[in-house]
């Protein structure tokens, strides 16, 4: 199993109290990354925020901004997202018809490129871009809303992608987003995940520091029930 020090926990701002985002960010100072979901109400059935909010948040933290673009089209907004302060930009294999070019553009903008994959999309869809990505994000819920239940069917995909990463010989971060909490975290880490995106499991707790530590591990066997 992956050692605790190698697990990245990225709190998902989507679960935070939007009326006091500065305070919410301060409460998760332990986390090295902050996951920012940009949604357009078209590619996914929800609307969140865009580059102006990302730029406003940038002054409140030194955390790495891990921006997940769930918008269509996505390419016209890559530059604005980078200029707003993103450190990593993740696009979907499903919303980037010229994925190879999109990933190249993200790196040219000075950001780490990532690609996300929805539950119904097979792992093989990423086989031709393993040389371009720094982050692979497996959605373990259907994207659009926080608080959904973890999809057990995605564990096999995580294992497949972990093996694809091993065979690539590259240091690619394997992230998981959706229904991540202290009960599901050990399962995805065992399957090969090295990064956990969590919203309600962190922002839904009074002690955010303790909530992050619970996801970092070390993990113990969880008893169903």
TrEMBL record:
Function per UniProt: Catalyzes the reversible epimerization of D-ribulose 5-phosphate to D-xylulose 5-phosphate.
Organism superkingdom: Bacteria
This enzyme's EC code(s): 5.1.3.1
Entry-linked CDD domains: RPE
Signal peptide: none
Residue positions binding a divalent metal cation: 35, 37, 68, 177
Keywords, sorted A to Z: Carbohydrate metabolism, Isomerase, Metal-binding
Binding site for substrate: 12, 68, 144-147, 177-179, 199-200
SUPFAM superfamilies: Ribulose-phoshate binding barrel
Protein name as catalogued: Ribulose-phosphate 3-epimerase
Cofactor dependence: Fe(2+); Co(2+); Zn(2+); Mn(2+)
Free-text remark on how the cofactor is bound: Binds 1 divalent metal cation per subunit.
Pathway: Carbohydrate degradation
Catalytic-site annotation from UniProt: 37 (proton acceptor), 177 (proton donor)
Similarity field: Belongs to the ribulose-phosphate 3-epimerase family.
UniProt cross-references to InterPro entries, sorted A to Z: Aldolase_TIM (IPR013785), Ribul_P_3_epim (IPR026019), Ribul_P_3_epim-like (IPR000056), RibuloseP-bd_barrel (IPR011060)
